[in-house]
Amino acid sequence: MSQPDLDEISFETEEPQTEQLMTFRIRDEIYGLSILRVQEIRSLCPMTLIPNSPPSVIGMMNLRGAIVPVIDLCQRLSIGESNVSETSVIIITKAIDLKNDTEKTVGLVVDQVREAQSIFLYDLQDAPSEMEAKVPQGSIQGLVEMDSQMTIVLNLDRLFSENFF
Amino acid sequence: MSNDLDMSEFQDIFFEECAEGLDVMEKGLMGLDDGADSEFINTIFRAAHSIKGGGGTFGFTAITEFTHSVETILGEFREGTRSVTRPVVDLLLTACDILRHMTGAMQEGEPVDTNRVAEVQAQLEAVLAGGSGELGPEAAAESAPESDSTSSDMDISSGGESVLLVGWAGELLGVTEDELLGHINKIAGVSASEPVRSGDGDELHTIGIRVSGSMTEDALKEGLAWVPSEITFTVADSSPPAPAPQMPKPMFFTNIDFGDEDDAPAAKPADPAPEAAPKAAAPVPASASVATEPAPAAPAAVTPTADDAGGAKPPAPPAGGGTGGSGSGSGKSGQANTIRVNIEKVDEIINLVGELVITQSILSQCCAKLDYMGEELRTGLDQLERHTRDLQDSVMKIRMLPISFVFNRFPRMVRDISSKLGKEIELEVIGEATELDKTVLENISDPLVHLVRNSVDHGIEMPKDRDSVGKDRTGRVILEAYHEGGNVVIQIRDDGKGLDRARIRAKAIQKGLISEEETLSDERIYDLIFHPGFSTADVVSDLSGRGVGMDVVKRNIRDLSGTIEVSSSEGEGTTFTIRLPLTLAIIDGQLARIGSETYVVPVLSVIESNQMKASQVSSIANGTEVYRFREEYIPIIRISEIFGLSQERRSIEEGLLIVVDAEGMKAGLHVDELLGQQQVVIKGMETNYKPIPGISGATILGDGRVAMILDIAGIINNSNWVDSAAINKAIERKQLQDQSRSAA
Q1: Which of A140, B34, B90, B600 is the most exposed place for a label (fewest CB within 10 A)?
Q2: Across the interface, which of A62, A69, A105 has its CB nearest the CB of B704?
Q3: Can you list the domains of chain B with their CATH numbers?
Q4: What ipTM did this prediction achieve?
């Protein structure tokens, strides 16, 4: 009664590999994140400062009794400081702490949430090197064009792999 | 597929029971050193028997075969055909180690070291062979261990008891096993029952029941005529051969304590039974009355067995203990009420209760803001608060375990090490029923092992050295645990040679930890042994003295928010005192406002809070300030500055100073305002983030906001924040000034 190997089946039927993205806006750019990593979306709430933490770490929030760090994605990606507006939200994500190999919950403040969209993985293009140089290594999985707008697809785990956890 | 899963679940239970059984055996064997009490031997024998039986049930033949030899030797002990000697006890202890290795390896799916097993098994067999040669033909004839154990069981029970086999095919109709037992108990007192065969579906089930008083099959059939199932009864006499072919021995009466039959006068044979049996049977679910029965309901694992009590509640004397019928009856009811639950489930409940407490306080705060609050709402809220607190207390108690879980290993360890070193050492254990949190318990074990080893290895002198200084040849190590305030205190005391101040000092100078001119108090000198890489042992043994350890001990204890102190007097001994919090999950917190943030200061470390006058504060080098607190100077730590909350320094007179103490070091924390005190549930920063210096965790306050909990010891010992060298120098200078001023 062994489970059929899903990878093998998709390989045999030559089905193109797709990924569902959750897209959001930071300033004027559109970013995407695998939707499987998104737990929920929350409105901004009071946060508690974490002593001596980098400026990109806004603080700790209370997520139904769990204590969850919230980061300003804008600063983590070295775009500048985010402008908190009415549309700003916290995307609660599940990231893997690669150092300790555990799953951790982290909130990301973004300017606006857009939609869920499917992409073909083979459509992903490499990001230009000057773009990659500014962000934590490997945190941009690639670029993909959707509705004539470039979407930057993020690798959540890599985003936190450099001295975050 | 589901069968496989179930099986592995049962195997886990078996392994757990093995571990408990082995603990019981080890403890019992240790007890044999002090004299061969027959009750001890019975306890050990039963534990071995259970392991063997379980091994057979689950098809671990290696375990069964190995335990067989052990059991045979124990059987001979029990019958008195072999005298209890230290070499044999040592061998049996080694056998326990082998069994532990075997079960451990099997559980992890690792290979068993068959060479070692075979080696020890050969030794056991050699002992057995030698033994039966001495014992003559009678014992040799009995050397088959099965007949040994059975016949001795029967001998004990010769006071008018008989064995009844109750059998049925397929499911019992209209009656549960427990009810059936209850009815049989009414007809003839049942003193013990044990499944002999519990088959699946239509297979034949058999229970063996030991009944007191004589009876006939007819009487039974008459009494149970209403039972719809086709049940067969066979009355077996006290002669073992008759039931033998039907009863696979390893399963029979493995868990039953015969102590009560021993004491029960033959004149009123039914007496102990009604007491013991209903208690054992009544409070447990149907299938649980039989511990080793691999029935589907067993994972709930109510295990009303004598062995379980020995394992789960080690402070209790060996089950039953021959304290008479009523004593063992109440013992049994205690055992029947234990339940084995996965710790994760308990933690989930604890978490949920933590949330409930928070929700309750949010609700109270909301209502406190209402202009009008009706009487009913007020009483309701008050009750809610009381009940949630009670609930929280009760739930936290679930995690509490007696410290004997850790202490139990020491008698064996001390015995092994002292015989290896040729020392004579007596270990006294006090307060082993003291309870503390399971997590604390698990993490305190290694540091304690280290400290006890240290006492045995370095503390206690060789017997001839003790003789020459006029001490008793036998050294004493005392392990004591007790509650003090909100803490558990564990002390390890020895009456050995004490710490050698001069040598520690010399070593510290050699290692560059202190300079030659420095004069240090005794306390400070003893504290040096907790430095990494510090060891004064001349000979590095495989036991201790490798220079790693004491620093690890201190770190482990600090990780548990505990402290360790050492005191010693030369020639008289050394005492290590460990203070641990009762639980890691909840602390009493003093809330304090610093800037716009609320922080929690653990109340345990607060000495007092003061409004300061500028005259009480002196500035020393690098902008560090000290405060004259009672007779001493303590550094002032401005939390807002070390946490980077504000850039400009405000006058010290604004705000308050919380004087705190950690590990004997005092400091004043400068905060803006004191808020209320409340219990807070500690949540780890690491769960979703990482450890933060100066912060031991976070909690959620009544208003739903997160607050950080200050790590007082971490702040005081952080050299970036507190320049203790500069402060110490300045304080010395100031004290000199004070002295000269008062002299003038």
Answers
A1: B34
A2: A62
A3: 2-143 (1.20.120.160), 154-279+286-292 (3.30.70.260), 343-399 (1.10.287), 402-581 (3.30.565.10), 586-743 (2.30.30.40)
A4: 0.87
